[in-house]
Amino acid sequence: LTERLNRAMKTITGQGKLTESNMDEMLREVRMSLLEADVNYQVVKDFVANVKEKALGQKVLDALNPGQMVVKIVKEELQQLLGNEDAQIHFNDNGITNIMMAGLQGTGKTTAAAKIARYLKNKKNKKALLVACDVIRPAAIEQLQTLGESIQVPVFTLGAETSALDTAKAADQYAKENGFDTVIYDTAGRLHIDEELMNELSMMKDFLHPQEILLTVDAMTGQDIVTVAREFNEQLQITALIVTKLDGDARGGGLLSVRSITNVPVLFVSNGEKVDDLEEFHPDRMAERILGMGDILSLIEKAQENMDVELAASSMERMQSGQFDMNDLLSQFEQMNRLGSFKGILKMIPGMNKMAGMVDDDQMNAQIKRMRAIINSMTPKERARPDILKASRKNRIAKGAGVKVADVNKLLTSFDQMKMMSQMMSGGMPAMNPFGGGF
Ligand code: GDP
Ligand code: MG
């Protein structure tokens, strides 16, 4: 399967022991994985350098299980970057807690405002008020009102004719008079940062002295988010982040960059359009996601646990010297079997998530089972020299394996292609991909 997996495998199947050079190879995988997840280049560079330094400092190479130690360090460092402790909303002990939303248009401010209001009401026992300060888009007020109704939190508005600042002033007064203890201000966004918006938000901030200014960060946005976050932070000094749309398939690496630029914690994760699709932030889960769902690292771990390293290495050698036969193919099928489902393996490889969705595990397993049955029906001589297989032998094998002669031919074609490929390529484990042709 893919070059990527082959390389990761090679890293650990190589000398059986981690050296500085194959640790570099492993870290290169980590680096690629982070870049694919849209983590900023500089952030990745620093991160990898940092991990390497830690690994060398901890004498990882002398450890009993160096591969797993590198894995552990990578995870720990990533979690560290994402913010280890669980952040909480800062409440005002002597008065109303003001929370202001900020972010570009469409990033999920309005939705998040309502979700947070619901959370405060249900989980923190707060008397919450929502305020509609997005007066740019008339539909935004209505949207907030609808959301407010669904969670039974009142929404304060003076309509679209009043400015955001005047709305905020009136809302503040209203909250005081009516015993609200937590007020969430939904604000307008723009497609791009502009001065008018920033001025409006700054004036609101100066008036409200909010305990929290929450920047919504859309996980689907790529690298642009870095610039946006920097601007918002410089002008408003945001206090925390809300990561939105994590229900999509984006890996969310942009968050790592935003974290490192703003240096504020992530408070919540929004993962759906419904008002209860809000979660507290878990750095460990996010770390795994950014590394590539299930991640290349756990694949390395798994491979290390389950692969018969010696056997894999010897069959690789045989391949490269052109001696690869059906026995080797059979042992490779068995190795693959031990790694678990194909879908599972694909999901662990960065960038292969989509493909995993297209794989039918049952079908794959059935194919492999069929191929194993065919090889098992061959005599030792036939396995060693599949080129002697002519019509009568093929017929006998097909019968024995309970398949059609065409299936036997397919396997032979794949085998020939693999053998040819293996002679052309040096290094890697091309035999891991028997599905190149025919099957
Ligand atoms: P705003 O312009 O920043 O206020 O963004 P909205 O709150 O209006 O959200 C923009 C769109 O994104 C709406 O269609 C929301 O339903 C949707 N949305 C917001 N948060 C999420 C989320 O976490 N997941 C998904 N799938 N959609 C979301
Ligand atoms: Mg909005």
UniProtKB/TrEMBL annotation:
UniProt domain comment: Composed of three domains: the N-terminal N domain, which is responsible for interactions with the ribosome, the central G domain, which binds GTP, and the C-terminal M domain, which binds the RNA and the signal sequence of the RNC.
Catalytic activity: GTP + H2O = GDP + phosphate + H(+)
Sequence positions that bind GTP: 103-110, 186-190, 244-247
GO cellular component, one term: signal recognition particle
PROSITE patterns: SRP54
UniProt similarity note: Belongs to the GTP-binding SRP family. SRP54 subfamily.
Biological process per Gene Ontology, one example term: SRP-dependent cotranslational protein targeting to membrane
Complexes and interactors: Part of the signal recognition particle protein translocation system, which is composed of SRP and FtsY.
Residue stretches in coiled coil: none
Source organism phylogeny: Bacteria, Bacillati, Bacillota, Erysipelotrichia, Erysipelotrichales
Keywords attached to this entry: Cytoplasm, GTP-binding, Hydrolase, Nucleotide-binding, Ribonucleoprotein, RNA-binding, Signal recognition particle
EC code: 3.6.5.4
Function: Involved in targeting and insertion of nascent membrane proteins into the cytoplasmic membrane. Binds to the hydrophobic signal sequence of the ribosome-nascent chain (RNC) as it emerges from the ribosomes. The SRP-RNC complex is then targeted to the cytoplasmic membrane where it interacts with the SRP receptor FtsY.
Single GO MF descriptor: GTPase activity
Residue stretches making up the SRP54-type proteins GTP-binding domain: 265-278
Subcellular location: Cytoplasm
Primary location class: cytoplasm
Protein's name in the database: Signal recognition particle protein
Superkingdom classification of source: Bacteria
